[in-house]
Amino acid sequence: MNGKSGQNATIGWQPEPTTRGTSGLLPSCVITIFLCVWRAVHINIPAKCERYARYGRKFGWLALGMIAPEVVVFAAWHQYNEARKLTNKVKELQENLRGKGLSRTKVPTYV
Questions:
Q1: Measured in Å, how far apart are the chain's first and last C-alpha atoms?
Q2: Please, what sign has the CA dihedral across residues 65, 63, 37, 72?
Q3: Where do runs of H (alpha helix) occur along 41-68?
Q4: Which residues lie below 8 Å from residue 66, measured CB to CB, with a gap of 6+?
Q5: Helices marked H in the chain — which ranges?
Q6: What's the pLDDT tens digit per position in 6-20?
Q7: Among 2, 37, 74, 98, whose CB has the most other CB atoms within 10 angstroms?
Q8: Is residue 71 within 8 Å of residue 64, measured between CB atoms?
């Protein structure tokens, strides 16, 4: 066995009929990754005119998530940080308005 024990030998492509081969494992792995990434990616709420364009964007993010998942994670992290900054600004604005005698119910909803 060329100096290798039978237990440590590297096994290459395996045919399908006798064992669970590579051609059977590869599609199931790709489908599993596809479904996981499809379920994990949440794109922004589209405008009414983009009703069907959102699927194109989601497929784009899906392809990116399968090829380079760290890019999707970075985009999510960046959006989270921006949302946190916006939340802090809104809280600060609410505190300033309360200090001027305006209650929370009098704060306009678009602020």
A1: 74
A2: positive
A3: 53-67
A4: 33, 34, 37
A5: 22-40, 53-67, 69-99
A6: 566 777 776 666 667
A7: 37
A8: yes
